[in-house]
Amino acid sequence: MTRFAVALLAVSVATPAGAAEKAPAPAERGYQALTRTAFIPAFWTRLALPNAWKSWDVGERPADYDRAVLERYGLHAAPYPNDGLPMGLRKAPLLLNTGVGIDCMLCHGGSIFGKSYVGLGNSTLDIQALFEDMARAEGLTPKLPFTFSNVRGTTEAGGFGVYLLGFRNPDLSLRTPRKELGLHDDLCEDVPAWWLMKKKRTIYYTGATDARSVRTLMQFMMHPLTTAKDFDKHEPAFRDISAYLANLEPPKYPFPIDAAKAAKGESLFKQHCATCHGTYGAKWTYPNKVIPLAEIGTDPARHRGISADYGKEYSESWFGKEESGGWFVNGKRLRWTDGYQAPPLDGVWATAPYLHNASVPTLDGVLNSKGRPKLYTRSYKTDEANYDPVRVGWKVTELGAVPGKLSAHESRKIYDTSKPGRSNAGHTYGDDFSADERAQVIEYLKTL
């Protein structure tokens, strides 16, 4: 019997006659769409990435170039087939050819302890350097239309939305000149974990949008070459992607946990933290609570950085005309709140740094406002050697002053909490804990 006949027999035995192949679930379709589809055209030719090193002030192309690219831009190996590209970059159409573009995982794909995760915020990304270097490699001006990132590991995500929507009519057809909608590029936003969305009724740091909205996930598609019809075409795929996000689970803490210590911490957490952040376990609760700025006391720049003009434009556009049956009515897609939404804390051990602007590198600092570093840098590596399992978060080096004569690339590695949008003040709820109590709460947080 030939090998082909054996294979055919095996299939006939495994699959009963007349049995239909099971259709993939929406979440499975969503994962495939997210990891395989180029939803926007390419930004660069295929030669840009191989030539990006010419902007690095090095004498020759690094020997281990793939590793050097990851370290330079804070990218991570793709845990899925991706044509040899890191997470966040992908092959995409470019006019009549194929080039390299970006996808959601540029910001929403991170790694910890050498393992990459879809949905973990990328806390090492230098998106400013990536776009500048790739432009230089194409022989173009590296000057960007606004600042994409002030501090490595953060992005001006709000600025992207405001800037790109300014080029669109309400039906998402292109318009020129760009409509000014109050662009701010000093908000210094951390990237939240996608797995938190399953619990949230509203999303974004201010709780401004319904978490069930599919169209809000599609704002990054406003590439200049994306047509209005493309948004309608891809909306079903993003509905599946939304189902995939609702099924994501956080990674488990990989080190031993002191069970007795964590139990004490759980009791303290329920007394002092659960009102805002919810409870955990099989019968979890999440209050979806927005804390007023006057109470939370964290940096107000992100809250003030999205203008009413933008909110009106968004609500009157295609993005705001989604029939989702949520708490909002058609045409009123953004709501205005008086503060920041307290997030769920699932997988919080893996999501350092903390606060909406990534200004606090460890959970110990979140629970002790007086112990937070004011001026510091870190390695921007995500291996075990750079993780602090006691304070829970990234190890940092505190600085007495900003070093002189740094390149822009090196300057973005320094977090200066005196700069606009980067204050580490506020969230003082753990200040009254004793050192032992704080350690107990942190031990409990490792279990989430």
From TrEMBL:
Any one GO molecular-function label of the UniProt entry: metal ion binding
Keywords for the protein's UniProt record, in alphabetical order: Heme, Iron, Metal-binding, Signal
Annotated segments matching region Disordered: 412-432
Superkingdom per UniProt: Bacteria
Organism: Gemmata obscuriglobus
Protein name, entry field: Cytochrome c domain-containing protein
Gene3D superfamilies tied to this protein: Cytochrome c-like domain
Ranges for domain Cytochrome c: 260-448
Leader peptide range in chain numbering: 1-19
